[in-house]
Design goal:
Two copies of one chain form a homodimer. Chain A is mainly α. Chain A is built from eleven helices and three strands, in the order ααβααββααααααα. In chain A, α2 crosses α4, α5 runs antiparallel to α10 and α6 runs antiparallel to α7. The relative contact order of chain A is 0.13. At the A-B interface, α1, α4, β2, α5 and α8 of A face α1, α4, β2, α5 and α8 of B. Chain B binds a DNA duplex through α4.
Chain lengths: ~280, ~280
DNA sequence: TTCTAAAATAATATCGACAAAATGTACAAA
DNA sequence: TTTGTACATTTTGTCGATATTATTTTAGAA
């Protein structure tokens, strides 16, 4: 219930993406957010540009730069940046401004591991609890996904936003029955991060992967109530994606590119963590 | 590595709490955050007041109110509120202001479940990876905790901030070897929430619980490398705490107290989630 | 040349004023 | 009474200007 949810259940879909299907704010529900604020608009757009990789990791986000990019004043920009920093998409240092969150191969593997852990819980718990609504939601999500082409162009690969949206919705449906909004919010956050890494890897090559088959096998295991198998497939799905990204070799711009090679990052981080926890 | 961390690894301790031990910014490390900003100050203090329960759930946070309470202008206050809303401690609705995140019994059980899931992973993974540093950290944390009284007054219960800090540090040490900063950050967030619930339950009665024993048994299982037993004890530890809070019966102020009983909360949330995911 | 220190520049953080929106109130009509 | 509507008030959200702090450049000394 309540406000907290509105804050937590934030990004079920990738970008708002032209919002095709019926946008009827459903039922009585024109209750909330009729007039979006400028800060929220900047937040959404900036978030999208970061996820899409248009703003590369480590890129400095000067207030003025963001201001004129999205045609807004300093205050809304600042608010947006502050939200994003709490989301982990932007890093902030007092008196020193904002940067697009960095990225690295190590971070990707850590991210993937964490994601597998959390989604395993989500899936297992959904299967254990088992509601018809949930099962039907999964099937429906798979069906919708299956009817959409992966790429807008059949020749070379060109991302299809609609496919991305439905793909995300499908994976979310799998864990949606876990009964924990917290877990769902965490998984959303991790999914955002993963999406960014996928965008960062230059993937002009048409993915030769049989994703469709993977999804179908997964749902088959779900319908068979074979939790172990379902989890194994899901986990493999994520691990494979990460591996592909890592193989391409370019997970760029881990840092603002400013030179201070004397102190290793890990050293700094470790020291900071230590000094805080005491 | 890098900026992201500073954003994510935020609150290892409960409030900054007079920061006793050596605050030497260690080594070369006066590199970061020398001059805290007003926005950050407001953020910390407001966060503390919410966690401590001084600002009750559902309480409206009017900009002016917060402004004069912490002697700051609108801009820094707004930034702090935006960060807190992303943290899940404050709820925000465009054009309609900020509220202290609501609380309810259902939320507490959901929170506790999630926390058990995540900490189980953290602990299991820490035990599996097993580093000496980690094990020693656990032992050290337990030792420190054991030398501090639970209450400042031996007669009636009066919270000892130092004990709270060390207690938190102890639990964090258990999962600190999991190798995922994401998981640690999530657990921190959940620990914050749990702390708030503890504070919300009027607990003037001296806790008759043998917490010390529970902690010792837990570490014993860790040292014996018995992951199943350790996890069971940890989980029981959290469940028991939640039960105690629930038994007291007062988890107050789930809502801004404004009356609109026609639409059930859950209905609203579900509808919103649905309308977004399509 | 290399290092240090001070001035110059640029960027962040903050305030106060204003515009836009929501909430509350008074009053009329059913 | 209840319902609806125009007005007044409160509050949020935004902008532009300014003070404070970091960064870069320049000048000077070793």
């Amino acid at each position: 219930m309540c406000p907290t949810r509105e804050t937590r259940l934030r990004h079920p879909e990738i970008l708002e993406s032209t919002c095709s299907m019926d946008d009827s704010s459903a039922a009585v529900g024109d209750h909330d957010t009729i007039t979006p604020t400028l800060a929220s608009s900047v937040y959404e757009r900036l978030r999208g540009d970061i996820l899409r990789g248009e703003l590369p990791p480590g890129h400095k986000l000067r207030i003025e730069f963001v201001s004129e990019r999205y045609a807004a004043g300093g205050s809304p920009v600042r608010e947006a940046l502050n939200r994003l920093s709490a989301d982990g998409l932007v890093s902030r240092r007092d008196q020193r401004g904002f940067y697009v969150a960095s990225a690295s191969a190590e971070d990707l593997v850590e991210l993937t591991r964490t994601r597998c852990w959390l989604e395993e819980i989500g899936l297992r718990e959904s299967m254990r609890a088992f509601h018809h609504d949930w099962e039907e939601g999964v099937i429906l999500a798979l069906h919708r996904l299956s009817r959409i082409p992966r790429s807008t162009s059949p020749e070379e690969y060109h991302e299809n936003p609609e496919w991305e949206r439905l793909h995300r919705a499908f994976h979310r449906s799998l864990i949606s029955g876990c009964g924990s909004r917290w877990l769902l919010a965490f998984c959303d956050q991790l999914a955002d991060q993963a999406y960014r890494y996928r965008q960062l890897a230059v993937q002009r090559i048409y993915p030769k992967r049989k994703e469709k088959g993977e999804h179908e096998a997964l749902v088959q295991a779900v319908l068979a109530r074979d939790a172990d198998r379902a989890v194994a497939l899901l986990t493999e799905h994520y691990r494979l994606t990460a591996d592909i990204i890592l193989k391409t070799g370019d997970v760029p711009g881990s840092e603002p590119a400013r030179a201070n090679p004397d102190r290793t990052r890990t050293g700094t981080v470790a020291a900071r963590a230590r000094s805080r926890s005491k």
